[in-house]
Amino acid sequence: MTALLWGLPGDSTMAAVHTELVRFGVPVLFVDQRSVLDTAVELRVGARIEGAVRVGDSVVDLADVGAAYLRPHDGMRVAAVRDEPPGSPVRRHVQEVADILSTWAELAPAFVINRPSASAGNGSKPAQLREIAAAGFAVPETLVTNDPEAVAAFSTRHENVVYKSTSGIRSRVRSLADDVSLEDVRSCPTQFQAQVPGVDVRVHVVGAEIFATRIDCEADDYRYASHQGLPRPRLSATDLPDDVAKRCRLLASRLDLPVAGVDLRVTPDEEWFCFEVNPSPAFLYYQQATGQPIATAVAGLLAAAVTCARVA
Description:
- The radius of gyration is 21 Å and the shape is globular.
- It has a five-stranded antiparallel sheet with strand order 14-13-12-15-16, sandwiched between helices. It has a four-stranded parallel sheet with strand order 2-1-6-7, covered by helices on one side. It has a four-stranded antiparallel sheet with strand order 8-11-9-10, with helices on one face.
- It is of the alpha+beta class.
- It has helices spanning 12-24, 89-107, 116-119, 125-134, 148-156, 242-254, 284-290, 294-311, and strands spanning 2-7, 28-32, 39-45, 49-55, 58-61, 65-70, 111-113, 142-145, 161-164, 174-175, 190-194, 199-206, 209-216, 234-238, 259-266, 272-278.
- α1 packs across α8 (294-311).
């Protein structure tokens, strides 16, 4: 049995998991999106899910894949494809490979981190907030709107307000106190939230394991502290209260995510807020800062699944 990895070798998070799988002695098929033109996938969906993946000279029967780790990149942006005209055979091939692999990842009996349908939940931050609240976390008072007057009224009720995209596309959390024009919101519904004071904690849920990182930073969004001329964030491993760890596991389970990055903030009064859940967290940044063996844990989940599939 084999573990299938789908993404870019240059992705440090993917590379770390690959390294650990090799160390565990797990056979790996790497579907490298940089060489997508040298990749072919066949899939037959019926009473059984059958097919094969060819990457260069390597061919693997999909029935022999016991686990998969997905961190796919937009195939249209790889060097061999991005300059091709819309509708070209090259672009059609790239889209077909992505569509077939996504379909397989959704339907296959293999263990998948994470299935496309589960990851798609990140496409709506407001919908995700409902799941977060259902798992027992506090959530900031939130407004999603493209009405400038509604934003103005919301801001009068809160001392500080931050805003960000409502979708899964990476966006920077900004303060409404910054020099912004509320009229701009007419062109795109935006998520506004009452700013929560406290300290950020990023939690990586890997199966039943919890890896929590405390982030001390003065920025509205610690990922962009340097953009505000502020010191770099200070990261340190930390322990969660048992009930908070339990809620993180429950939340990941509700979202059907074997691996998840959960963004928390603990207030000075020890109230735990959750802002969102990343279904494909780039955890190596936190691992390198804290020494937590997150890649080993992810690879361990995959290796265990491959072993179980082999025995079965």
